[in-house]
Amino acid sequence: MDDLIISNNKANYFLDLRDIFQNENPIFLEIGMGNGEFIVHMAKENPNANFIGIDVSKEIFRKALSRVKKSGLKNIRIMRIEGSEFLCKFVRSKTLSGVYINFPDPWSKKSRKERRLVNEPFIYLISDRLKEGGVFIFVSDDEDYAMTVWELLKKFTNFSPMWDDGLRTDFPEYYKTKYARKWLSLGLTIYYIGFRKERDVDLPEHVKKYYPLLNLSKEDLFMPLIEFKIKKTLNNEFIKEVLSILPRDVIYRDENTLIKILDVYHNERSILVDVLCVEGYYQQRFFVDINDIKKDILKIAIHDSDDPDPTLGVHRALAILASILKENFPELELVQNTTKVKNLT
Questions:
Q1: Is the residue at 282 inside a domain?
Q2: Phi, psi (5° rounding) for residue 257?
Q3: How far apart are CA 118 and CA 125, in angstroms?
Q4: Is 85 assigned to a binding site?
Q5: Which of 124, 181, 213, 310 is at 20 to 30 A from 170, Cα to Cα?
Q6: What mean pLDDT is reported for the chain?
Q7: Tally of domains in the chain
Q8: Which residues are the active-site residues?
Q9: 30 is in an annotated binding site
Q10: pLDDT of residue 238
Q11: What is the pLDDT of residue 1?
């Protein structure tokens, strides 16, 4: 089983996918693999290609794993993860020969359309991860979602349609899953959109802001911390003072980032700050631990129970908390600051 699953941990970030399969065969990705029917079929029909399937649902992933194991195929790997997160963390530029998205959630209600996976930043991300000549095929039974994706792709001059204008409602040679067969049996329409990458384009800055994980490198994967020299112990009186100055509210906001303290907890030796950090599309929630376990040192760090991706927002959250403490306790002397925010005033 371990051979089939790509582990979602920091040790695998920015890995070379060829090392997983131990060959140079082209690599295709299915985002939202469902029960694994499509990817197992593709891997069986194309033994000289490699396939990766991902899905965010725990229950669906379990079903897909069972199907992949029963197939006995050696050219499939799977991971439980969201699509854009996988592309940012585990796929290098110019790696994939194709990306398939079959029947994604259309989020049909107007108020929820912003949750759709495929939007302008996502197409830039797909473009960056595809090799020249790589294909992107999007299949949907939702006309509005399909038309939106089609119109977006037509605006990207580095993509060309795989057929006519890139949109069709009849694609006999495309494998039909059980869901597709049922939909077609009811006389309903399926929309197939296919485009091929012709050349590279640089990722715009707004895409890197929307996907903050794009700004991480292997060298950035350390967890930041801040330490102050403290002349008093973290006793009940000091804890009460700290609790009184920490707002349960937004502590930072700009056009791309929101950092909010949701709540604060404490015991006799430490304070736990429950933090929500939203950067572009990416949300993380984690605890910041403020403690004096080291003698004469007040430490501000991510709690051991959490392991967020160390984006700029995470660094900024620690720095802002440290700034609040420094402002209210000027006697604190900075000993160490490994965050990317060096000015704590």
A1: yes
A2: -130, 140
A3: 10
A4: no
A5: 124
A6: 93
A7: 2
A8: 105
A9: yes
A10: 81
A11: 43
